[in-house]
């Protein structure tokens, strides 16, 4: 018997080993295992061949189906667009150059290198599919493509947003699902590439002719510039997409190095304290950002009517209280999210449109507009940020003597999705704990309102200012509101609820000013960015409204040369500045003398 024979031979001393030194029992088991595996594999192969022999037609159909499916997957990955609007059937009516080149390479290689090339090709398709899907998401929400050098830092923030909005379970499931999806895509794409490589090699003669015809057709269509359904027949979409991402990464790394030097230069970096903001001395100045308050809220037909009525009502109410306002437009450094980029761009006078720039500038000592108030020594400076729920080291960079975060405002009511508390409550707490208190110096305040943060469900409603208490009054309102999961997936409802959220935030702010503003109050409020593209539109601008409100006519006289529109609603033809221009214009308008620093 084979096993006995092997045992008998292995029990003899070999190469000077004694019988006691040899391990015959282990050899028996190993050999038996190998033989069993070989027998099992042979049995399975035999069964497969038997099945193919017994059912040749079914076997052929299965073979053709899996081959066709593999071809569809490969061609689909090579032609997949990177935006949702472009995701149409006609986008796949193309001849991809990468498929022709892949076929040429496979046909030229021997078996083992061919297998390795197919695996690498499948992994390349995985990378291409992943970046295209990321581009879709980023274009849908942030109005731009994914940047491999900069945007990985945003993924934890995205998970935190999902957790705050839809719950920790959904956030965890989404993160795990994303990882599994990438692994699944990798497995499927590699399998598809290996399958096609095997088929091409098995039918080399016909595959060579087909590849030659496809290549000749591609070259001809490319040379003649032939198009079909609005796009070129000869496509290099896959290689082009990877090339764009590679170039974007390289440019981002170069930009980071250049920005480090740019951030060191400052028009007002060496201005003495006594020459800063001399025309605002004695005023209580409040800088307020309204979350996602963009131009679309004022001009988009789906949202503008309600928001415009709110602005008109607010303008009239403030005029009755003795206030006047001027309004214009700023082009934000961000879109759809990453509000902190808009805040820091406005306050620093630097264009901060990505996380790397943000980290660079906040780690330095570039003069922010808020810090300029602190530097004079003539103001107490505070920040009111109900959206901050953990340590915030940027407090020092902004020049804030004191920060009031989500846990410092005494709120005991429910969260409204991502927003920790309604804007009306945050403003009342600001009045009670900060603005309304007697002090030796005037106050400069940096206030961030959050009720208009996506997903705009559930939304708070205005209540009597004397009824706010600790915020418990909002319990019933929150329970009766829409569910975030019902609104976030519905574009029409998202647009409607977004408009309502802006009306709420603006009403809270203007009523607060009407109620608590004094002769020395100066309010500057603006949006941080437009809402996501699904709400504002794929071709929406990046403009946000900005307004200055004051009772003292001398304050608005200082900005008369800006040609801003009277009232809280900026006109369509009102001046549009880049957001990073605001700091220097504001400082100069209110008596600051430039003394540049070069770093």
From TrEMBL:
One of its GO terms (molecular function) is transferase activity. The chain crosses the membrane at residues 61-80, 86-108, 115-134, 173-198, 210-229. Residues 386-532 form the Sulfatase N-terminal domain. SUPFAM superfamilies: Alkaline phosphatase-like. Keywords: Membrane, Transferase, Transmembrane, Transmembrane helix. Residues 1-11 have a biased composition (Basic residues). This is CDP-alcohol phosphatidyltransferase.
């Amino acid at each position: 018997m084979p096993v006995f024979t092997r045992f008998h031979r292995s029990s003899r001393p070999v190469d000077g080993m004694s019988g006691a030194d040899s391990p015959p029992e282990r050899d028996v088991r190993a050999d038996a295992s190998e033989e069993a595996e070989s027998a099992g594999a042979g049995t399975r192969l035999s069964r497969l061949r038997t099945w193919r022999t017994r059912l040749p037609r079914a076997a052929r159909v299965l073979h053709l189906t899996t081959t066709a499916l593999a071809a569809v997957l490969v061609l689909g990955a090579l032609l997949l667009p990177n935006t949702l609007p472009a995701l149409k059937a006609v986008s796949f009516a193309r001849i991809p150059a990468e498929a022709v080149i892949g076929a040429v390479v496979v046909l030229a290689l021997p078996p083992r290198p061919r297998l390795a090339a197919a695996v690498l090709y499948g992994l390349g398709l995985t990378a291409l599919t992943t970046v295209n899907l990321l581009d879709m998401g980023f274009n849908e929400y942030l109005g731009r493509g994914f940047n491999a050098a900069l945007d990985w830092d945003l993924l934890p923030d995205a998970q935190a947003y999902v957790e705050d909005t839809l719950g920790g379970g959904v956030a965890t499931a989404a993160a795990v699902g994303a990882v599994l999806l990438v692994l699944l895509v990798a497995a499927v794409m590699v399998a598809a590439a290996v399958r096609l490589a095997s088929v091409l090699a098995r039918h080399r003669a016909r595959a060579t002719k087909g590849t030659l015809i496809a290549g000749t057709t591609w070259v001809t269509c490319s040379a003649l510039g032939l198009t079909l359904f609005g796009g070129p027949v000869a496509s290099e979409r896959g290689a082009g997409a990877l090339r764009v991402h590679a170039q974007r990464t390289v440019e981002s790394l170069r930009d980071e190095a250049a920005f480090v030097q740019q951030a060191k230069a400052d028009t007002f970096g060496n201005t003495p304290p006594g020459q800063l903001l001399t025309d605002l001395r004695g005023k209580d100045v409040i800088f307020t950002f309204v979350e996602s308050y963009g131009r679309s809220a004022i001009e988009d037909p789906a949202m503008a009517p309600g928001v415009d009525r709110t602005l008109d009502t607010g303008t009239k109410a403030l005029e009755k209280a003795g206030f006047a306002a001027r309004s214009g437009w700023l082009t934000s450094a961000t879109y759809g999210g990453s509000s902190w980029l808009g805040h820091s761009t406005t306050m620093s006078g630097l264009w901060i449109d990505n996380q790397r720039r943000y980290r660079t500038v906040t780690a330095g000592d570039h003069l922010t507009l808020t810090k300029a108030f602190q530097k004079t020594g003539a103001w107490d400076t505070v920040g009111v940020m109900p959206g901050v729920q953990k340590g915030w080291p940027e407090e020092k960079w902004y020049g804030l003597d004191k920060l009031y975060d989500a846990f410092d405002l005494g709120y005991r009511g429910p969260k409204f999705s991502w927003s920790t508390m309604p804007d009306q409550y945050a403003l009342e707490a600001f009045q009670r704990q900060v603005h309304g208190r007697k002090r030796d110096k005037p106050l400069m305040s940096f206030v961030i309102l959050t009720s208009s943060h996506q997903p705009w469900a559930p939304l708070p409603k205005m209540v009597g200012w004397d009824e706010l208490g600790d915020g418990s009054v909002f319990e019933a309102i929150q329970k009766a509101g829409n569910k975030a999961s019902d609104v976030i997936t519905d574009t029409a409802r998202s647009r409607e609820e977004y408009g309502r959220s802006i009306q709420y935030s603006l009403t809270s702010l203007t009523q607060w000013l009407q109620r608590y503003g004094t002769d020395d109050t100066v309010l500057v409020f603006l949006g941080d960015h437009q809402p996501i593209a699904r709400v504002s539109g794929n071709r929406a601008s990046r403009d946000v409204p900005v307004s200055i409100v004051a009772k003292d006519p001398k304050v608005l006289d200082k900005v008369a040369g800006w040609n801003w529109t009277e009232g809280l609603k900026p006109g369509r033809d009102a001046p549009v500045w880049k957001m990073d221009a605001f700091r220097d214009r504001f400082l100069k308008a209110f008596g600051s003398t430039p003394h540049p620093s070069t770093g």
